[in-house]
Design a protein that fits this description.
By secondary structure, the protein is an alpha+beta fold. It contains eight helices and nine strands. The protein folds into two domains: about 60 residues, no CATH class; about 190 residues, Orthogonal Bundle (Transferase(Phosphotransferase), domain 1). GO terms for molecular function: ATP binding; cyclin binding; cyclin-dependent protein serine/threonine kinase activity. Belongs to the protein kinase superfamily. CMGC Ser/Thr protein kinase family. CDC2/CDKX subfamily. Its EC number is 2.7.11.22.
């Protein structure tokens, strides 16, 4: 899509893979996000270090524009935070988008509140696909992905990984919607693992890592300590998303079927 069809009106931000502008179509109409992107988005050229060259066509991606992300949405919520039913509504939406990606063999690899958009009507949109990859289970993927506080144990331990890394991030975001702050607030990879073990009991220690289990503390707190409003079925859903073993971690499809998301507040457990 030619950039001549759009008129940039404001710079929204600069990321690792390009600059994002708010733009309006020439001749009027709804605005969109206009990433002036790198050739990294083109599979055949993405190993190329230079993002621009006079003899290489630039790639421009045009997205719909959404005014706020989930981080802003949470920050704007009055004390004591989002109502439980609003959290459930959000949790019925962005895992649906994630299930679509995973069904098409796509792993997002950078889910966090800043990369989940919320429209004025409350519709959730997944965004920022700069680290997204089409994968197979035999494919080697880089270990330095996902913002630290949303990073799954298998990535922290530099083990193999696939779509379950996204589900760990969903669990972290789910807890954060109750707490209004990250559930694991480590300052380094080792510290992050320590914070995880403080809350989550590991099932199986991975075989393909060099660190022994004894290098980290034991004795997790009850997962209900995340927030007193997190009822038993919600705590169970959280534990299924934050399963240490990625093979036992709940999928996005199964999250959408979970009873917690379909039980009205106040119903008996």
């Amino acid at each position: 899509m030619a950039t001549s069809r759009y008129e940039p009106v404001a710079e929204i931000g600069v990321g690792a893979y390009g600059t994002v502008y708010k733009a309006l179509p020439n001749g009027g109409g709804a605005g969109g996000g206009l990433p002036i992107s790198a050739v990294r988005e083109v599979a055949l050229l993405r190993r190329q270090e230079a993002f621009e060259h006079p003899n290489v066509t630039k790639v421009t991606l045009v997205f719909e524009h959404v005014d706020q992300d989930l981080r802003t949405y949470l920050d704007k919520a009055p004390p004591p935070g989002l109502p439980v039913e609003t959290i459930k509504d959000l949790m019925r939406q962005f895992p649906r988008g994630l299930d679509f990606l995973h069904a098409n063999c796509i792993v997002h690899r950078d889910l966090k509140p800043e990369n989940i958009l919320v429209t004025s009507g409350g519709t959730v949109k997944l965004a920022n696909f700069g680290l997204t990859r089409i994968y197979s289970y035999q494919m080697a993927l880089t270990p330095v992905v996902v913002t630290l506080r949303y990073r799954a144990p298998e990535v922290l331990l530099q083990s193999t990984y696939a779509t379950p890394v996204d589900m760990w991030s969903v669990g972290c975001i789910f807890a954060e919607m109750f707490r209004r702050k990250p559930v694991f607030r480590g300052n380094s990879e080792a510290d992050q693992l320590g914070k995880i073990f403080d809350l989550i009991p590991e099932d199986d220690w991975p075989r393909d890592v060099s660190l022994p289990r004894g290098a980290f503390p034991r004795g997790p707190r009850p997962v209900q300590s995340v927030d007193p409003e997190l009822e038993e079925s919600g705590a169970q859903l959280l534990l299924e998303m934050l399963s240490f073993n990625p093979h036992k971690r709940i999928s996005a499809f199964r999250v959408l079927q979970h009873p917690y998301l379909h039980k009205a507040e106040g119903d008996a457990e």
